[in-house]
Amino acid sequence: MSDATKDADHTGDGTRAVRAGLPEPVKHEPTLPGPVFAAHFHLPGEVAGPYSYGRDDNPTWTLLERAIGELEAPGRDDVETLVFASGMAAISSVIFSQLRAGDAVVLPSDGYQVLPLVRSQLEAYGIEVRTAPTGDDGQLEVLDGARLLWIESPSNPGLDVCDIRRLVEAAHAHGALVAVDNTLATPLGQRPLELGADFSVASGTKQLTGHGDVLLGYVTGRAGETMTAVRRWRKIVGAISGPMEAWLAHRSIATLQLRIDRQNATALAVAEALRQRPEVSGLRYPGLPGDPAHKIASQQMRRYGCVISFTLPTRARAERFLQALRLVEDATSFGGVRSTAERRGRWGGDAVPEGFIRMSVGAEDPEDLVADVLRALDESAR
Protein backbone atom coordinates (compact mmCIF):
# COMPACT_ATOMS: atom_id res chain seq x y z
CA MET A 1 0.00 0.00 0.00
CA SER A 2 1.34 3.43 -0.92
CA ASP A 3 2.21 6.09 1.67
CA ALA A 4 -0.50 8.30 0.15
CA THR A 5 -3.11 5.63 0.84
CA LYS A 6 -1.90 5.27 4.42
CA ASP A 7 -2.08 9.02 4.95
CA ALA A 8 -5.61 9.16 3.54
CA ASP A 9 -6.77 6.36 5.85
CA HIS A 10 -4.73 7.57 8.86
CA THR A 11 -4.15 3.90 9.70
CA GLY A 12 -2.15 1.05 8.24
CA ASP A 13 -3.79 -2.25 7.43
CA GLY A 14 -2.18 -4.03 10.38
CA THR A 15 -3.35 -1.44 12.90
CA ARG A 16 -6.84 -1.44 11.43
CA ALA A 17 -7.08 -5.26 11.46
CA VAL A 18 -5.91 -5.48 15.08
CA ARG A 19 -8.37 -2.85 16.32
CA ALA A 20 -11.30 -3.35 13.91
CA GLY A 21 -14.69 -3.45 15.55
CA LEU A 22 -13.49 -3.21 19.14
CA PRO A 23 -15.89 -1.49 21.57
CA GLU A 24 -14.91 1.50 23.64
CA PRO A 25 -12.73 0.33 26.55
CA VAL A 26 -14.48 -0.23 29.87
CA LYS A 27 -12.50 -0.75 33.04
CA HIS A 28 -12.32 -4.40 34.09
CA GLU A 29 -14.03 -5.54 30.87
CA PRO A 30 -12.24 -7.60 28.16
CA THR A 31 -10.88 -5.81 25.10
CA LEU A 32 -12.98 -8.08 22.88
CA PRO A 33 -16.08 -9.26 24.79
CA GLY A 34 -16.83 -12.95 24.62
CA PRO A 35 -19.62 -14.44 22.52
CA VAL A 36 -23.17 -13.64 23.57
CA PHE A 37 -25.25 -16.82 23.61
CA ALA A 38 -28.87 -15.71 23.59
CA ALA A 39 -31.97 -16.80 21.74
CA HIS A 40 -33.89 -13.89 23.27
CA PHE A 41 -33.22 -10.77 25.32
CA HIS A 42 -35.08 -8.96 28.10
CA LEU A 43 -37.72 -6.94 26.30
CA PRO A 44 -40.28 -5.24 28.55
CA GLY A 45 -42.61 -2.68 27.03
CA GLU A 46 -41.93 -1.37 23.53
CA VAL A 47 -39.72 -3.49 21.27
CA ALA A 48 -37.62 -0.58 19.97
CA GLY A 49 -33.90 -1.18 20.38
CA PRO A 50 -31.07 -3.18 18.87
CA TYR A 51 -31.58 -6.65 20.39
CA SER A 52 -34.84 -8.52 20.73
CA TYR A 53 -34.51 -11.99 19.21
CA GLY A 54 -31.48 -14.08 18.31
CA ARG A 55 -32.36 -14.57 14.65
CA ASP A 56 -32.42 -10.81 14.06
CA ASP A 57 -29.35 -9.47 15.84
CA ASN A 58 -26.69 -10.35 18.36
CA PRO A 59 -24.06 -8.15 20.06
CA THR A 60 -21.28 -10.49 18.88
CA TRP A 61 -22.42 -10.09 15.27
CA THR A 62 -22.54 -6.33 15.73
CA LEU A 63 -18.85 -6.11 16.65
CA LEU A 64 -17.82 -8.46 13.83
CA GLU A 65 -19.94 -6.60 11.29
CA ARG A 66 -18.38 -3.34 12.41
CA ALA A 67 -14.91 -4.85 12.05
CA ILE A 68 -15.50 -6.14 8.53
CA GLY A 69 -17.05 -2.83 7.50
CA GLU A 70 -13.97 -0.98 8.74
CA LEU A 71 -11.81 -3.20 6.52
CA GLU A 72 -14.04 -3.15 3.43
CA ALA A 73 -14.81 0.58 3.54
CA PRO A 74 -12.52 2.39 6.00
CA GLY A 75 -13.61 5.86 7.00
CA ARG A 76 -17.12 5.51 5.59
CA ASP A 77 -20.24 5.68 7.71
CA ASP A 78 -22.69 5.08 4.86
CA VAL A 79 -22.09 1.33 4.58
CA GLU A 80 -23.59 -1.64 6.36
CA THR A 81 -22.23 -5.16 6.86
CA LEU A 82 -24.27 -8.27 7.57
CA VAL A 83 -22.76 -11.64 8.52
CA PHE A 84 -24.18 -14.99 7.49
CA ALA A 85 -23.77 -18.68 8.25
CA SER A 86 -21.60 -19.28 5.17
CA GLY A 87 -20.30 -17.65 2.04
CA MET A 88 -23.07 -19.26 -0.01
CA ALA A 89 -25.67 -17.87 2.39
CA ALA A 90 -24.22 -14.41 1.78
CA ILE A 91 -24.16 -14.91 -2.00
CA SER A 92 -27.72 -16.20 -2.01
CA SER A 93 -28.93 -13.29 0.11
CA VAL A 94 -27.83 -10.74 -2.47
CA ILE A 95 -28.97 -12.65 -5.54
CA PHE A 96 -32.37 -13.70 -4.25
CA SER A 97 -33.16 -10.45 -2.44
CA GLN A 98 -32.48 -8.26 -5.48
CA LEU A 99 -34.00 -10.32 -8.32
CA ARG A 100 -37.59 -10.96 -9.32
CA ALA A 101 -39.26 -13.09 -11.98
CA GLY A 102 -38.61 -11.49 -15.36
CA ASP A 103 -35.27 -9.94 -14.29
CA ALA A 104 -31.94 -10.83 -15.89
CA VAL A 105 -28.69 -11.49 -14.05
CA VAL A 106 -25.15 -11.79 -15.43
CA LEU A 107 -22.94 -14.42 -13.78
CA PRO A 108 -19.35 -15.40 -14.56
CA SER A 109 -19.08 -18.56 -16.65
CA ASP A 110 -15.82 -19.42 -14.89
CA GLY A 111 -16.79 -18.71 -11.30
CA TYR A 112 -17.29 -20.78 -8.17
CA GLN A 113 -18.61 -24.24 -8.97
CA VAL A 114 -21.84 -23.78 -6.97
CA LEU A 115 -22.97 -20.98 -9.28
CA PRO A 116 -24.47 -23.46 -11.80
CA LEU A 117 -26.75 -24.67 -9.01
CA VAL A 118 -27.71 -21.07 -8.34
CA ARG A 119 -28.43 -20.65 -12.05
CA SER A 120 -30.81 -23.61 -12.06
CA GLN A 121 -32.73 -22.20 -9.11
CA LEU A 122 -32.91 -18.73 -10.63
CA GLU A 123 -34.23 -20.09 -13.90
CA ALA A 124 -36.84 -22.09 -11.98
CA TYR A 125 -38.01 -18.74 -10.55
CA GLY A 126 -38.35 -17.22 -14.02
CA ILE A 127 -35.13 -15.18 -13.92
CA GLU A 128 -32.98 -15.00 -17.05
CA VAL A 129 -29.36 -16.00 -16.44
CA ARG A 130 -26.58 -14.89 -18.76
CA THR A 131 -22.97 -15.96 -18.40
CA ALA A 132 -19.65 -14.74 -19.78
CA PRO A 133 -16.01 -15.25 -18.79
CA THR A 134 -14.20 -13.05 -16.29
CA GLY A 135 -11.13 -12.50 -18.46
CA ASP A 136 -11.05 -9.68 -21.03
CA ASP A 137 -14.10 -8.16 -19.31
CA GLY A 138 -16.31 -10.62 -21.17
CA GLN A 139 -19.37 -9.78 -19.09
CA LEU A 140 -19.58 -6.36 -20.75
CA GLU A 141 -21.13 -7.99 -23.80
CA VAL A 142 -24.23 -9.28 -22.02
CA LEU A 143 -25.20 -6.42 -19.70
CA ASP A 144 -28.05 -4.89 -21.67
CA GLY A 145 -31.26 -5.05 -19.65
CA ALA A 146 -29.72 -6.88 -16.69
CA ARG A 147 -30.80 -6.11 -13.13
CA LEU A 148 -27.66 -7.50 -11.45
CA LEU A 149 -24.06 -8.13 -12.51
CA TRP A 150 -22.17 -10.68 -10.42
CA ILE A 151 -18.36 -10.35 -10.64
CA GLU A 152 -15.83 -12.82 -9.29
CA SER A 153 -12.36 -11.31 -9.52
CA PRO A 154 -9.99 -13.07 -9.19
CA SER A 155 -12.11 -15.95 -10.42
CA ASN A 156 -12.10 -19.32 -8.69
CA PRO A 157 -10.31 -21.50 -9.64
CA GLY A 158 -8.84 -20.04 -12.85
CA LEU A 159 -7.62 -16.74 -11.29
CA ASP A 160 -8.70 -14.48 -14.15
CA VAL A 161 -9.19 -10.81 -13.30
CA CYS A 162 -11.52 -8.24 -14.83
CA ASP A 163 -11.48 -4.45 -14.72
CA ILE A 164 -14.01 -4.00 -11.94
CA ARG A 165 -14.29 -0.23 -12.27
CA ARG A 166 -14.93 -0.51 -16.00
CA LEU A 167 -17.62 -3.16 -15.54
CA VAL A 168 -19.25 -1.22 -12.71
CA GLU A 169 -19.49 1.94 -14.81
CA ALA A 170 -20.99 0.01 -17.72
CA ALA A 171 -23.43 -1.89 -15.51
CA HIS A 172 -24.63 1.25 -13.76
CA ALA A 173 -25.10 2.91 -17.15
CA HIS A 174 -27.40 -0.03 -18.00
CA GLY A 175 -29.26 0.36 -14.70
CA ALA A 176 -27.80 -2.76 -13.11
CA LEU A 177 -26.56 -3.32 -9.59
CA VAL A 178 -23.08 -4.82 -9.16
CA ALA A 179 -21.91 -7.38 -6.61
CA VAL A 180 -18.28 -8.47 -6.37
CA ASP A 181 -17.22 -11.74 -4.78
CA ASN A 182 -14.18 -10.58 -2.82
CA THR A 183 -13.29 -13.92 -1.24
CA LEU A 184 -9.98 -14.53 -3.00
CA ALA A 185 -8.76 -10.97 -2.57
CA THR A 186 -10.02 -10.20 0.97
CA PRO A 187 -10.62 -6.58 2.06
CA LEU A 188 -6.85 -6.09 2.42
CA GLY A 189 -6.33 -7.09 -1.19
CA GLN A 190 -9.22 -5.28 -2.84
CA ARG A 191 -12.05 -2.93 -1.88
CA PRO A 192 -14.91 -3.37 -4.35
CA LEU A 193 -17.00 -0.51 -2.91
CA GLU A 194 -14.13 1.90 -3.63
CA LEU A 195 -14.19 0.61 -7.22
CA GLY A 196 -17.89 1.52 -7.42
CA ALA A 197 -19.59 -1.79 -6.67
CA ASP A 198 -22.87 -1.87 -4.77
CA PHE A 199 -22.02 -5.00 -2.78
CA SER A 200 -18.85 -6.70 -1.63
CA VAL A 201 -19.63 -10.31 -0.79
CA ALA A 202 -17.28 -12.96 0.58
CA SER A 203 -16.87 -16.26 2.28
CA GLY A 204 -15.24 -15.50 5.61
CA THR A 205 -14.51 -19.21 5.85
CA LYS A 206 -11.39 -18.64 3.76
CA GLN A 207 -8.50 -16.22 4.31
CA LEU A 208 -10.47 -13.65 6.31
CA THR A 209 -10.57 -16.03 9.30
CA GLY A 210 -7.73 -18.19 8.03
CA HIS A 211 -7.70 -21.21 10.33
CA GLY A 212 -10.07 -23.61 8.59
CA ASP A 213 -12.37 -23.85 11.60
CA VAL A 214 -15.19 -21.37 10.92
CA LEU A 215 -17.96 -21.26 8.33
CA LEU A 216 -18.97 -17.65 7.73
CA GLY A 217 -20.09 -15.23 5.03
CA TYR A 218 -20.78 -11.53 4.82
CA VAL A 219 -22.21 -8.78 2.64
CA THR A 220 -21.05 -5.18 2.79
CA GLY A 221 -22.98 -2.54 0.88
CA ARG A 222 -24.19 1.02 0.95
CA ALA A 223 -26.82 1.43 3.64
CA GLY A 224 -30.28 1.86 2.16
CA GLU A 225 -32.98 -0.04 0.34
CA THR A 226 -30.75 -2.72 -1.19
CA MET A 227 -29.12 -3.68 2.11
CA THR A 228 -32.49 -3.56 3.85
CA ALA A 229 -33.61 -6.22 1.38
CA VAL A 230 -30.52 -8.30 2.16
CA ARG A 231 -31.25 -8.04 5.90
CA ARG A 232 -34.86 -9.04 5.30
CA TRP A 233 -33.71 -12.09 3.34
CA ARG A 234 -31.43 -13.12 6.21
CA LYS A 235 -34.37 -12.88 8.60
CA ILE A 236 -36.66 -14.89 6.32
CA VAL A 237 -34.16 -17.66 5.58
CA GLY A 238 -32.53 -17.66 9.01
CA ALA A 239 -29.03 -18.15 7.58
CA ILE A 240 -27.36 -16.65 10.64
CA SER A 241 -23.91 -17.09 12.09
CA GLY A 242 -23.62 -18.66 15.52
CA PRO A 243 -22.18 -16.33 18.18
CA MET A 244 -19.16 -18.59 18.75
CA GLU A 245 -18.31 -18.58 15.05
CA ALA A 246 -18.72 -14.81 14.92
CA TRP A 247 -16.45 -14.34 17.92
CA LEU A 248 -13.79 -16.67 16.50
CA ALA A 249 -13.92 -14.77 13.23
CA HIS A 250 -13.46 -11.41 14.95
CA ARG A 251 -10.57 -12.75 16.99
CA SER A 252 -8.93 -14.12 13.83
CA ILE A 253 -9.20 -10.84 11.90
CA ALA A 254 -6.59 -9.35 14.26
CA THR A 255 -3.89 -11.40 12.51
CA LEU A 256 -5.22 -10.90 8.97
CA GLN A 257 -2.52 -8.51 7.81
CA LEU A 258 0.25 -10.68 9.25
CA ARG A 259 -1.15 -13.82 7.66
CA ILE A 260 -2.00 -12.33 4.31
CA ASP A 261 1.37 -10.65 3.79
CA ARG A 262 3.22 -13.86 4.64
CA GLN A 263 0.96 -15.97 2.44
CA ASN A 264 1.10 -13.56 -0.49
CA ALA A 265 4.89 -13.36 -0.42
CA THR A 266 5.20 -17.14 -0.21
CA ALA A 267 2.65 -17.63 -3.00
CA LEU A 268 4.78 -15.50 -5.28
CA ALA A 269 7.88 -17.52 -4.34
CA VAL A 270 6.07 -20.79 -5.10
CA ALA A 271 4.75 -19.41 -8.40
CA GLU A 272 8.26 -18.30 -9.39
CA ALA A 273 9.56 -21.79 -8.65
CA LEU A 274 6.76 -23.47 -10.60
CA ARG A 275 7.42 -21.21 -13.56
CA GLN A 276 10.82 -22.89 -13.99
CA ARG A 277 9.39 -26.40 -14.26
CA PRO A 278 8.81 -27.78 -17.77
CA GLU A 279 6.04 -30.16 -16.67
CA VAL A 280 3.94 -27.26 -15.33
CA SER A 281 1.59 -25.53 -17.74
CA GLY A 282 -1.18 -22.96 -17.40
CA LEU A 283 0.41 -21.40 -14.31
CA ARG A 284 -1.72 -18.55 -12.96
CA TYR A 285 -1.06 -16.12 -10.12
CA PRO A 286 -2.12 -12.48 -10.52
CA GLY A 287 0.96 -11.25 -8.65
CA LEU A 288 3.34 -12.97 -11.04
CA PRO A 289 4.86 -10.57 -13.59
CA GLY A 290 3.88 -11.92 -16.98
CA ASP A 291 0.58 -13.36 -15.76
CA PRO A 292 -2.22 -12.33 -18.16
CA ALA A 293 -4.06 -10.66 -15.27
CA HIS A 294 -1.07 -8.92 -13.69
CA LYS A 295 -1.51 -5.50 -15.30
CA ILE A 296 -5.15 -4.94 -14.38
CA ALA A 297 -4.70 -6.70 -11.02
CA SER A 298 -1.92 -4.25 -10.17
CA GLN A 299 -4.26 -1.34 -10.89
CA GLN A 300 -7.09 -2.44 -8.59
CA MET A 301 -5.62 -4.91 -6.09
CA ARG A 302 -3.44 -4.03 -3.14
CA ARG A 303 -2.43 -7.67 -2.54
CA TYR A 304 -2.75 -10.59 -4.93
CA GLY A 305 -3.97 -13.44 -2.77
CA CYS A 306 -2.64 -16.79 -1.64
CA VAL A 307 -4.04 -19.08 -4.36
CA ILE A 308 -2.06 -20.44 -7.32
CA SER A 309 -3.36 -22.65 -10.11
CA PHE A 310 -1.42 -24.79 -12.55
CA THR A 311 -1.75 -27.96 -14.60
CA LEU A 312 0.33 -31.14 -14.62
CA PRO A 313 0.37 -33.36 -17.71
CA THR A 314 -2.08 -36.03 -16.52
CA ARG A 315 -4.53 -36.85 -13.77
CA ALA A 316 -2.20 -39.59 -12.53
CA ARG A 317 0.75 -37.20 -12.36
CA ALA A 318 -1.34 -34.67 -10.42
CA GLU A 319 -2.48 -37.32 -7.94
CA ARG A 320 1.08 -38.57 -7.43
CA PHE A 321 2.20 -34.98 -6.84
CA LEU A 322 -0.47 -34.42 -4.21
CA GLN A 323 0.39 -37.69 -2.46
CA ALA A 324 4.09 -36.77 -2.39
CA LEU A 325 3.58 -33.42 -0.66
CA ARG A 326 4.47 -33.37 3.04
CA LEU A 327 3.68 -29.77 4.04
CA VAL A 328 0.55 -29.38 1.91
CA GLU A 329 -2.74 -31.05 2.82
CA ASP A 330 -4.89 -32.57 0.09
CA ALA A 331 -8.05 -30.66 0.95
CA THR A 332 -10.55 -28.29 -0.58
CA SER A 333 -11.13 -24.65 0.38
CA PHE A 334 -8.32 -22.12 0.61
CA GLY A 335 -6.86 -19.27 2.64
CA GLY A 336 -5.79 -21.17 5.75
CA VAL A 337 -2.50 -20.95 7.60
CA ARG A 338 -1.75 -24.53 6.55
CA SER A 339 -1.16 -24.96 2.82
CA THR A 340 -3.67 -27.05 0.90
CA ALA A 341 -3.95 -28.27 -2.68
CA GLU A 342 -6.31 -30.40 -4.67
CA ARG A 343 -6.94 -31.76 -8.12
CA ARG A 344 -9.90 -29.56 -8.84
CA GLY A 345 -11.43 -31.81 -11.48
CA ARG A 346 -12.36 -34.41 -8.88
CA TRP A 347 -15.44 -32.38 -7.97
CA GLY A 348 -16.78 -31.84 -11.47
CA GLY A 349 -18.37 -28.54 -12.39
CA ASP A 350 -15.16 -26.68 -13.23
CA ALA A 351 -14.02 -26.54 -16.86
CA VAL A 352 -10.43 -27.48 -16.06
CA PRO A 353 -8.01 -30.15 -17.32
CA GLU A 354 -7.72 -33.43 -15.41
CA GLY A 355 -4.28 -32.43 -14.14
CA PHE A 356 -5.37 -28.99 -12.91
CA ILE A 357 -4.19 -28.14 -9.38
CA ARG A 358 -5.51 -25.35 -7.16
CA MET A 359 -3.03 -24.62 -4.41
CA SER A 360 -3.60 -22.41 -1.38
CA VAL A 361 -0.34 -21.20 0.14
CA GLY A 362 -0.24 -21.11 3.92
CA ALA A 363 2.04 -19.54 6.50
CA GLU A 364 4.85 -22.08 6.40
CA ASP A 365 8.43 -20.87 5.85
CA PRO A 366 8.76 -20.02 2.15
CA GLU A 367 11.97 -22.02 1.72
CA ASP A 368 10.40 -25.12 3.25
CA LEU A 369 7.26 -24.90 1.15
CA VAL A 370 9.10 -24.30 -2.13
CA ALA A 371 11.41 -27.21 -1.39
CA ASP A 372 8.45 -29.47 -0.62
CA VAL A 373 6.68 -28.56 -3.86
CA LEU A 374 9.79 -29.10 -5.97
CA ARG A 375 10.58 -32.40 -4.26
CA ALA A 376 6.99 -33.61 -4.82
CA LEU A 377 7.24 -32.68 -8.50
CA ASP A 378 10.42 -34.72 -8.79
CA GLU A 379 8.95 -37.72 -6.99
CA SER A 380 5.74 -37.63 -9.00
CA ALA A 381 7.71 -37.93 -12.25
CA ARG A 382 8.95 -41.42 -11.34
Summarize the structure.
The chain is α/β, with parallel strands linked by helices and 382 residues long. Helices cover 36% and strands 15% of the residues. It contains twelve helices and twelve strands.
Question: How would you describe this structure in keywords?
Answer:
single chain, 382 residues, alpha/beta, seven-stranded mixed sheet, five-stranded mixed sheet, 12 helices, 12 strands, disordered N terminus
What does this structure look like?
Residues 1-9 have low confidence and may be disordered. The strands form two sheets. The chain has a seven-stranded mixed beta sheet with strand order 1-7-6-5-4-2-3, with helices on both faces. α6 (164-173) links the parallel β4 (148-152) and β5. It has 382 residues and is of the alpha/beta class. The protein has twelve helices and twelve strands. The protein is globular and about 75 Å long.
Low-confidence stretches: 1-9
Secondary structure category: alpha/beta
- Residue fraction in strands: 5-15%
Question: What string gives the helices and strands in order?
Answer: HHHEHEHEEHEEEHHHEHEHEEEH
CA radius of gyration is 21 Å
* Helicity level: 25-40%
Mean pLDDT: 95
| Number of helical elements | 12
Read across the widest sheet, the strand sequence of neighbours is: 1-7-6-5-4-2-3
Number of strands: 12
Sum up the overall morphology in one term: globular
Distance between the termini: 44 Å
Biggest sheet statistics: 7 strands, mixed
